[in-house]
Amino acid sequence: MARVRRLPEAKTGNPFDYVVKYTPWMRFKLLMGIILLLPIRMLLNLLVTALVVVCVRLGGRGWKTGSHLKPWQKFMMTVIVPPIVRFWLFAVFGYYTISVKGKKAPISEAPISLISPHSNVMDSWMLSLFTWGSSMSRIENASLPVIGDCLKSCEPIWVDRDSNKGSGTVDEVIKRIKSPGLWIPVVIFPEGTVHNNESVIGFKTGAFRPGVPVQPLLFRFSEPAFGIWSHYGPSLPATMLLVMCQWRNYCEVEYLPVYKPSEAEKKDAQLYAMNVQKVMAKGLNKPMTDYSLEDLRLLQTGTDAGLPKSTALLEYGLVNRIFGARLPALVKILNRFIQMNTSKSGVVSRDEFLSDLQWPVAEHANLLFAEYDTCSDTAELRYREYVVGTLDLVVKVPGGDNIATTAFKVLSGDGAHITASTMLNAVHQLGYKKVSKGGVEKFLYRVSQSNDLSADGFSSHVEANPDVKVLLYWLLNGTDQF
Description:
Blueprint: H1 24-60, H2 71-91, E1 95-101, E2 112-116, H3 123-130, E3 136-138, H4 147-152, E4 157-159, H5 166-177, E5 186-188, E6 214-221, H6 236-244, E7 249-255, H7 263-267, H8 269-284, H9 293-304, H10 316-323, H11 327-340, E8 347-349, H12 350-357, H13 362-372, E9 380-382, H14 383-392, H15 403-411, E10 417-419, H16 420-429, H17 437-448, E11 452-454, H18 455-464, H19 467-477
Parallel strand pairs: 1-7, 2-5, 2-6, 3-4
Antiparallel strand pairs: 6-7, 8-9, 10-11
Helix pairs in contact: 1-2, 9-11, 11-14, 12-13, 16-17
């Protein structure tokens, strides 16, 4: 199988980072909005919000997972609440014009509606005007004031992102679309998280696993988009205030034709999701990327460890398709990268790489760095390169699962422990005469803080540092063997 040396560069930058770029004219209009509009709109907001809160609390009162809203609650949410929300958007947020293109399909033709992009603070409120439906939401949102009540009034499908039982969510979607008269129509933001609207990020497959037709729904908001709400940008309250200070905002809602999956798409939810993503990206005139919710989690892990913001961005969807790697494996590789990057610069230098390994056979350590470093003119290793190297090289080591056991027998001289003497003797017998005792002692100290290494300690080190599998294989078999 051919080596995958590197991934194509991403089409866009960090999709979870957003900075409002003000021109002098924008600053002037914002100042005037703060002085002239904000006081009035804040007062109106208090009055209308109180009315909306009362309605949604009544609308979701008594609702529990698996139950249905009462007829009077559905009447309130479909007949009474939308005009209040429309007035709220008009008077408080300046959405004087909300235009609609296309036609909403009946639920019999499209049991699921998909909305993109998921990037504006007004997404859900616009949705309530045109497609009142049951959406997926992380279970933590149930306890949020007001927002939790709003969600409960729509018979939500709770998603536990910390659970591996994703099939339960899909089963719930299937149950609802098979009983359309009992449940509110299913409406899903397939991107699964908010972003900066510079691209259409990867779709989660949950909405596509049932294999039923879907109707894409596009949102286009005012430019410049003060309402963008991303993970690394203005807070939710600040973003809403920015929108309230604009003299005029608008939104265009477009219903695209119903997308009916082919037989191949019904069998392959990932293929179905990618093809619908292409259609929606084309409709929005935005690039389609493989960034996803998993990238956000990697990004947060990296920033929590002190790395620069975009260090751990990977395009998870692309890596998953090529290598089949899942998030836990990529987090493990990221933690290894963080361990090596002592400077917290976001790139691992050759010196950092060699210093972390402390491998006594210098030519092997340098060769491994060269294998990882596909931008050899920089002599620096990015996380993206390190992931490719690990997934493409390390996991293909012949007998990789048993390499630690085999190597321990050789390096310990068939004894119970590896010592500096037994390892140095073994390395010399394998033909690496230039290796010094000091080099061996540094490696042992790196592993066990001593010159004595047990089988369990050696195995644990190899498991935690998968790069060593390659080095051990080269040591025992030569670099021309793999």
